[in-house]
């Protein structure tokens, strides 16, 4: 049995495909479909995960971690609790372990093979970090899958449709936002284009409400400073999230705030909330409009369906703005559960693709025809952000006299939106100076949503060295560089000097921890006693 896991910024859930072929979301130990992606470190080897962690954080917020997904793939982020250091990957692994353990208790079956979802805007480093979080949790990660694609697969299962259809998936979750255009051809899914903001989501709406609540309290009690009290602020986060959810179905709500013996009744209306957060919603609409324009440039002139995914899409303003923008009435498709359901379907496909049809049919308890159908399904994705190499600007006068100080820039060989797998073929570059003994091939990844050749707008992803070039090579000697990126994000770089056939080839799994770090983290996480 394979499982699909929606590892969310604020909430996570897990699903599997039952004997009738339907994806089913598994309830956790509390009987709920979603589990808060929160971890509380109550002792050196003891943690709480989920609702219990969020509640414990009210008393000791310095021992809790939330919104860790926003830091996936970053090597400069670490957490220290009870003298131990944790990476975003190991924190996420604790959440994954709890999901798996709760599922095993409920189903009486082991959780081993999984597909974990990621935002479509996640780069290769974040995707690799997510895969490693699964490995640290002791899971066999069959693949990572973009959340909008998972939602589209779930929708196709619920509402089967023949022929080619184009979907625009608007995915606004707790911490990230994506807009993705997908071409559905029967059961096959092909990403046309995608864009998003990895730092935009429901947590930003919560922050605006929290500020509103603090200001409301300060207006009535200006001599008090509750914002400096961690427990009060932690309680505000919970009240802010509650207000946000309640105002999706109500026009006005209130919360009672208490601090230092003083109480304030803070009232918030849906209209005022929309005013406070108008710029946030505007950002999502701008990204959506730009994504739709890129899709039109690729021949997608209309959308058969606009699908809303993520808990934030319950806000009435989202559907209203999208309908005005796109001229199509959006449809909610299980905003909190569709991603996990689609991931479970894809996990079954990935399992089926790992063996021949007869073996797959026996192993999964399905007919050979069903196994063949699963094995033939295809999901194609695109490079979310561009990849390139750093080169010397030969128009800079320093390039001839002092190359090390001359301007450099990035040439993106794999632009954002390139369909995977992709092969650039040989691209010609040149040596920077006479008698150059070798070349450092530096691979850089696009930082933001917009492509830029400026080095500061890109991130160094890795490097390799082409050594021992023949002596007396003149400046400008051709060097051919080829990029090949597979569906899993593994980038192979090949550099060759054609005349001498000197070459270097290296596989670059962008970002994440090295194998030794993963094994150490796996051992450390396995020691923890997890409560929920």
**How many domains?**
3
Q: Strand count, sense and closure of the main sheet?
A: 6 strands, mixed
pLDDT < 50 runs, ≥5 residues: none
At the fourth level of CATH, the homologous superfamily of the largest domain is ATPase, nucleotide binding domain
Residue-averaged pLDDT? 90
End-to-end CA span: 24 Å
Per the CATH scheme, the topology name of the largest domain is: Nucleotidyltransferase, domain 5
Helix content: 25-40%
| Category from helices, strands and their pairing | alpha+beta
Estimate what percentage of residues fall within beta strands. 25-35%
Count the E strands.
29
CATH class of the largest domain: Alpha Beta
Shape: globular
Over all CA atoms, what is the radius of gyration? 25 Å
Architecture of the largest domain, according to CATH?
2-Layer Sandwich
Q: How many helices in DSSP terms?
A: 14
């Amino acid at each position: 049995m394979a499982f699909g896991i929606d590892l969310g910024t604020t909430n996570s859930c897990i699903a599997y495909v039952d004997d009738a072929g339907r994806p089913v979301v598994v309830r956790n130990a509390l009987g709920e479909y979603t589990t808060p992606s929160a971890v509380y470190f109550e002792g050196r080897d003891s943690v709480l995960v989920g609702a219990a962690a969020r509640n414990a954080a009210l008393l000791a917020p310095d021992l809790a971690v939330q919104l860790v997904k926003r830091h996936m793939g970053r090597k400069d982020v670490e957490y220290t609790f009870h003298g131990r250091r944790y990476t975003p990957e190991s924190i996420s692994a604790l959440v994954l372990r709890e999901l798996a353990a709760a599922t095993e208790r409920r189903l009486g079956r082991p959780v081993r093979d999984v597909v974990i979802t990621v935002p479509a805007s996640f780069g290769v480093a974040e995707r690799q970090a997510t895969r490693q979080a699964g490995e640290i949790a002791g899971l066999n990660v069959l693949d990572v899958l973009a959340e909008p694609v998972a939602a589209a697969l779930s929708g196709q299962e619920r509402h089967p449709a023949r022929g080619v259809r184009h979907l625009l998936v608007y995915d606004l979750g707790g911490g990230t936002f994506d807009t993705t255009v997908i071409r559905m051809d029967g059961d096959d899914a092909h990403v046309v284009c995608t864009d998003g903001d990895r730092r935009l989501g429901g947590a930003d709406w919560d922050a605006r409400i929290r500020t509103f609540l603090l200001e409301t309290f300060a207006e009535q009690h200006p001599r008090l400073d509750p914002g400096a009290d961690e427990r009060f602020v932690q309680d505000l986060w919970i009240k802010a999230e509650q207000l946000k959810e309640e105002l999706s179905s109500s026009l006005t709500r209130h919360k009672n705030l208490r601090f230092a013996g003083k109480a304030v009744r803070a009232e918030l209306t849906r209209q005022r909330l929309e005013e406070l957060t108008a710029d946030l919603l505007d950002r999502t609409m701008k990204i959506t409009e730009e994504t739709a324009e890129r899709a039109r440039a690729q021949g997608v002139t209309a959308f058969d369906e606009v699908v809303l995914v993520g808990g934030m899409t319950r806000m009435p303003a989202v559907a209203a703005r999208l309908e005005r923008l796109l001229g199509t009435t959006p449809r909610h498709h299980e905003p909190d559960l569709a991603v996990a359901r689609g991931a479970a379907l894809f996990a079954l496909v990935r399992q089926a693709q790992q063996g021949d049809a007869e073996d797959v049919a026996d192993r999964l308890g399905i007919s050979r025809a069903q196994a063949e159908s699963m094995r033939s399904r295809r999901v194609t994705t695109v490079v979310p952000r561009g990849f390139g190499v750093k080169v010397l600007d030969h128009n800079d006068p320093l390039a001839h006299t002092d190359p090390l100080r001359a301007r450099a820039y990035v040439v993106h060989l794999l632009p954002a939106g390139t369909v995977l797998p992709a092969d650039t073929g040989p691209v010609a570059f040149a040596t920077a100076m006479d008698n150059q003994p070798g070349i450092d091939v530096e691979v850089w990844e696009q930082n933001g949503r917009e492509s830029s050749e400026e080095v500061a707008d890109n991130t160094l992803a890795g490097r390799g060295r082409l050594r021992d070039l023949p002596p007396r090579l003149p400046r400008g000697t051709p060097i051919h560089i080829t990029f090949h990126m597979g569906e899993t994000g593994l980038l192979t770089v090949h550099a060759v000097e054609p005349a001498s056939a000197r070459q270097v080839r290296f596989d670059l799994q962008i970002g994440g921890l090295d194998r030794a770090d993963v094994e150490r983290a796996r051992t450390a996480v396995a020691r923890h006693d997890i409560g929920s």
